[in-house]
Amino acid sequence: MASTDRFDAIVIGSGISGGWAAKELTEKGLRVLMLDRGHMVEHQQDYTYDGRPAYDVPARNMMPERLMESDYFIAKHGYVSPSNQAFHNNDRLNPYDYGEGSKFYWIRPAAVGGKSLIWGRWSFRWSPADFEANKREGVDGVWPIGYDDLAPWYSYVEKYIGVSGSRENLPYLPDSEFQPAMPMNVAEKWMKQRLETAFPGRKMINARLSNMTEDKPEQNRTKCQFRNQCGNGCSFGAYFSTQAVTLPAARATGRLTLRSDAMVTNLEYDAATKKVTGVRFIDAKTGQAEVVQAKLVFLNASTLGSVQILMNSRQPGGGRSHFDSSGTLGRYVMDHIFRVSVGGDIPGMEEFIEYGRRPGGIYVPRFRNIDSADDVGFKRGYGYQGSAFRAPAWPVGFGKSMKEGMRRYGGWQFQMGAFGECLPYKDNQVVLSPDKTDRFGIPLMRFNVTFRDNELRMMADAREQGEKMLRGAGLKNVGSKVREHVPGDAIHEMGGARMGDDPRASVLNKWSQAHDATNLFVTDGAQMASISCVNPSLTFMALTTRAVDHAVKSLKAGAA
Amino acid sequence: MDRRHALAGMAAMFGAQLFTPLARAAGLAPAMPVIDQGAPGIQVFTPPQRALMTALSERILPTTDTPGAIAAGVPAYIEKLLADWADVEDRDPIISGLAEIDARSRQDYTLAAIDATPAQQDALLTLAMNNDIPDGWEFFEAFRQMVIAGYYTSEIGMTQEREYLPVPGEYDGAFPYSQVNKVYSA
Predict the structure, then answer these.
(1) Per-residue pLDDT tens for A399-416?
(2) B35, B171, B178: which to substitute to probe chain A, counting the most A Cβ within 10 Å?
(3) Strand partners, A382
(4) Residue A216 to residue A212: CA distance in whole angstroms
(5) Residue B69 lies in a domain
(6) How close, in Å, is residue A217 to chain B by CA atoms?
(7) The dihedral of CA A194, A195, A199, A200: what is its sign?
């Protein structure tokens, strides 16, 4: 595979953004090699536990404690279970520098499809204010693009993947091109009405999800069947994944070559032409290294996977990365702050219950610092994701009376958790270990990322306001929980190779293109200069399609 | 330098040319661990302990109009869990709890607990639940949770005691509770 003319483009990573890059590049006529470090998972046939109830899954689908502690001690924070074990990184075989620096949960996938097989599927557009916030507040990291640059690409992506949700006309949470929303249940409707009445300006809306409510027969995809077993792999193709959506499209062109088990170590670079001249990877099955070449390289190895590859692309001897002339590579790493949950009991309506297992639930969009800075003691804001549900009763004791007691449902309960925006800090940084490498010889990632006062004050407010809203809406036994705040936990890590107009202060330009290499595009979460408070994947998809459009136009014009 | 590091050094030396079996030996292509589902790797219980654990599981979730813990395979699940899946120290409160219950049975009924009547076994479990025997609560709560977990994730638990909807196909957020015959399995 050393020949130089087999591929027009190489895509590194096959997850949410990599799959989109491959689809768009192949559909625009390019011959594409997509590399992924993970093992192959084919749609449907490799979803081993799709449709299987717990008694048909190893260990009743409860991750054995000993295996969790030996091999999945980080993945356990990312909802690993026996039915999706094959999709999750093995933390023993593929370590990062656990012992050094600050505590960070780097939750990674293990298979082709990347996190598209394990993601939460909540899909939101950013608002104009999200892109403007750094500039308006004087926060380091001015975005070189705005909402209007991305809006057509949001539409393009949404129409293709299918996003269910409700039109709300909220300026700070723009509507997508929606399929019908998954309905609220009777208790959520009751709560919405009371919450919005008691707190004017605050909203409780339907979840916005990549789980479809209408079929897409042209893509061989069927709408959600309300099994809520998305994490096992969905043979209906009801939610967006590489396997169900972008990989079939890319393959249909006949121009895609996919190599699984291909661990990219670094990019080769020519300083004279400012171009990436090769992508070096190791076949994880054989240990053989190969270098492949193409005119264009799309780096989509996940936020921190991409940053690691960029940092490891340097002169022998451990100098600065070829792509770090700005000195900002590996800096401004962010994650949503996540660990506040509030809950309570919704009185009444016990003559109703839910039929079917709905993925998703309700969303309370950000209401802090919307039009101007509120006097709340922190910047930015947070949103809540939650749902109302009835759970089986949990009687004490044992024997026949307990068994009978467990045949009833308890009343309606409500729970929601906050996702808060973390500011970009220059010294929230990842670096390569100076002395530890993995089994491929790649230096281990070391994390120095902590939440700061602004994030902690925001979460204190999210807790207080959450309780206040639930009480104000008439819930009983309202309470809240605050758990440890470990960055990475939200699995919304972003930044590290941010976009910007100034090549002295950013790694990528407004087209997600490296300032230091005209043929290199990084279109996953690494490019983000700030992180809003909404779930990010839809924005990565839109940015990817926009970057591919630009890259191919430039290529055809002879500029890239 | 141990063998694995020596081989990794060889991998660096030969670079791309390393022979596949050597690459495997160097740890470049380690197998992903699978969850062992075979027979328990060790005997957690002696035969009398196993018999008592089995009888007590049925007292926690007895046969009524639906099958109980034994029919649902709960004792085998618990032994596999403690042998190979759970932390090794999780065996301790179960083993010692069974011994304490047996000792109390010999004291109260001059019978091994396994030979006690179901009513007497219920009385012994109640003592444990109320922490009226040494470390009784620790045994009772751990054992009760294991029985419940094993039962409601078994085929009997999920499909006979409860109702499992493999493909609900639709969602109704205001479904009449009066039409629910059994609790739905997750």
Answers:
(1) 999 999 999 999 999 999
(2) B171
(3) A420
(4) 9
(5) yes
(6) 17
(7) negative
Residues of B with CB below 8 A from A352's CB? 173-177
Q: Which residue has the tokens 């009376």?
A: A401
A543-559 pLDDT, tens digit each = 999 999 999 999 999 86
- Kindly tell me if the per-residue pLDDT of B15 is higher than 80: no
DSSP state string for A164-212: E-----BTTB---SEEPPPPPPHHHHHHHHHHHHHSTT---EE--BSS-
Question: How far away is chain B from the Cα of A68, in angstroms, using its nearest Cα?
Answer: 9
Please state the separation of Cα A207 from the chain's center in Å: 16
A66 and B144: CB-CB below 8 Å?
Answer: no
Distances (CA, A) of A22 to A70, A164, A256, A268: 35, 24, 7, 21
- pLDDT for residue A9: 98
- Provide the terminal-to-terminal Cα distance of chain B, rounded to the nearest Å: 51
Tell if the CB–CB gap between A60 and B158 is shorter than 8 Å.
no
Residue span of the structural domain in which B155 resides? 3-28+42-92+138-165+176-185
Q: Pick from A503, A502, A497: which is nearest to A527 by CA?
A: A497
Do the domain assignments include residue B101? no
Residue B76 lies in a domain: yes
Across A34-52, average pLDDT: 97
Kindly list the residues from chain A whose CB atom is less than 8 angstroms away from the CB atom of residue B149: 60, 62
Chain A residues inside the 8 Å CB shell of B177: 350-353, 409
Give the residue on A whose Cα is nearest the Cα of B14.
Answer: A288
Could you report the per-residue pLDDT of A135-187, keeping only the tens digit for each? 999 999 999 999 999 999 999 999 999 999 999 999 999 999 999 999 999 99
Q: What is the DSSP letter of A422?
A: P
- Coil/strand/helix, residue A466: helix
Structural domain total, chain B: 1
Contact B183 A392 (CB under 8 A): yes
Q: Which residues of B touch A55 (CB under 8 A)?
A: 153-155, 158
List the single residue in B with minimal CA-CA distance to A439. Answer: B28
Position B40: which residue type? Answer: P
Look over chain A and give the mean of its residue pLDDT values, rounded to a whole number: 96
Is residue B105 included in any domain, yes or no?
no
Among candidate residues A79, A75, A356, the one with its CA nearest the CA of residue A232: A79
Q: Which of B125, B169, B184 sits opposite A398 (nearest CB)?
A: B125
Closest Cβ opposite residue A54 in set B153, B173, B182 = B153
Tell me which chain A residues have a C-beta less than 8 angstroms from the C-beta of B87: 65-66, 69
Chain B, nearest residue to A405 by Cα: B183
Contact A439 B27 (CB under 8 A): yes
Q: What number of residues does chain A have?
A: 560
Complex prediction ipTM? 0.92
Determine whether the interchain pair B87/A66 forms a contact, defined as Cβ–Cβ distance below 8 Å.
Answer: yes
Instruction: Name the pLDDT band for A373 (thresholds 50, 70, 90).
Output: low
Each residue of A481-519: pLDDT tens digit?
A: 998 889 999 999 999 999 999 999 999 999 999 999 999
pTM for the full predicted model: 0.94
SS (H, E, C) chain B: CCHHHHHHHHHHHHHHHCCHHHHHHCCCCCCCCCCCCCCCCCCCCCHHHHHHHHHHHHHHCCCCCCCCCCCCCHHHHHHHHHHHHCCHHHHHHHHHHHHHHHHHHHHHHCCCHHHCCHHHHHHHHHHHHCCCCCCHHHHHHHHHHHHHHHHHCCHHHHHHHCECCCCCCCCEEEEEHHHCCCCECC
